[in-house]
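Quiz preparation item.
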């Protein structure tokens, strides 16, 4: 193990690969934003500037969240199919009905926002179709749960379906809005660039940009890392990950393996 981090060489290699990929991603988006280590060599960015195009960057963050959540629910459909639970694959809140409900809900919310938050837009034929799809998906989940409850003579399925629908109504919008933090960090990053520019007039350009980059690596690295873990393990993974299966029990415990290694070295 390494003396400072206390991790194995394999773990350090994984962290190194993650840091490398993060650097590549940062370089790509920095080029799109027209920003290189807080310097702006071009008068206009290739794509957008987060701090100046706030609504655009928020829209991109939400679009990424929608795509990732649909992917997560699609993976859950695959899980149901692998377990040969075809009813769950279709009529689950994270199955095909859940995907239909979510896409229709996103379409309805998008039209409300585009209309300037005018709720009268829900009376238009285009949005009413989305409302019918939402009601259809919820009805299918309830009817299938009722059928299973009558079939097994247990109310667990029905209660689970009701709980699942409540979760769909609350969790899906909140999970989607959680991806706004991606836009927030993009804007915060550019704000650090503005700070570096202000400091350049006070302590010199070289010192200010070096200090700003060190602060970004420390503060943003920690903050973005934590939020990325949250989005990956909560918003994304909970849609398809099942905490079941057979518990892993190693033949030799890690402590015993370390003692054996020390004995062999002696």
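Solution:
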């Amino acid at each position: 193990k390494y003396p400072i981090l206390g991790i194995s060489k394999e773990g350090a290699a994984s962290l190194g690969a993650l840091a490398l990929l993060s650097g590549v991603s940062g370089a790509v988006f920095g080029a799109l934003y027209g920003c290189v280590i807080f310097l702006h060599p071009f008068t206009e960015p290739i794509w957008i500037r987060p701090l100046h195009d706030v609504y655009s960057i928020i829209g991109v963050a939400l679009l990424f969240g929608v795509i990732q959540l649909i992917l997560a629910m699609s993976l859950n459909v695959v899980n149901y199919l692998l377990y040969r639970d075809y009813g769950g694959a279709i009529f689950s809140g994270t199955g095909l009905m859940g995907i239909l409900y979510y896409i229709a809900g996103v379409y309805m919310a998008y039209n409300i926002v585009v209309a300037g938050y005018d709720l009268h837009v829900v009376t238009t034929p285009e949005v009413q179709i989305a409302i019918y799809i939402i009601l259809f998906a919820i009805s299918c989940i309830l009817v299938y749960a009722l059928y299973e409850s009558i079939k097994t003579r247990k109310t667990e399925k029905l209660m689970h379906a009701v709980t699942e629908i409540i979760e769909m109504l609350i969790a899906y919008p909140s999970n989607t809005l959680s991806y706004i933090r991606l836009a927030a960090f993009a804007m915060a990053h550019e704000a650090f660039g503005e700070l570096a520019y202000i400091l350049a007039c006070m302590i010199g350009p070289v010192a200010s940009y070096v200090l700003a980059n060190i602060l970004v690596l420390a503060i943003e690295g920690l903050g973005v890392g934590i939020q990325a873990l949250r989005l990956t393990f909560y918003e994304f993974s909970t849609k398809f990950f099942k905490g079941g299966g057979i518990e892993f029990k190693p033949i030799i415990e890690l402590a015993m393996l370390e003692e054996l290694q020390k004995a062999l070295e002696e």
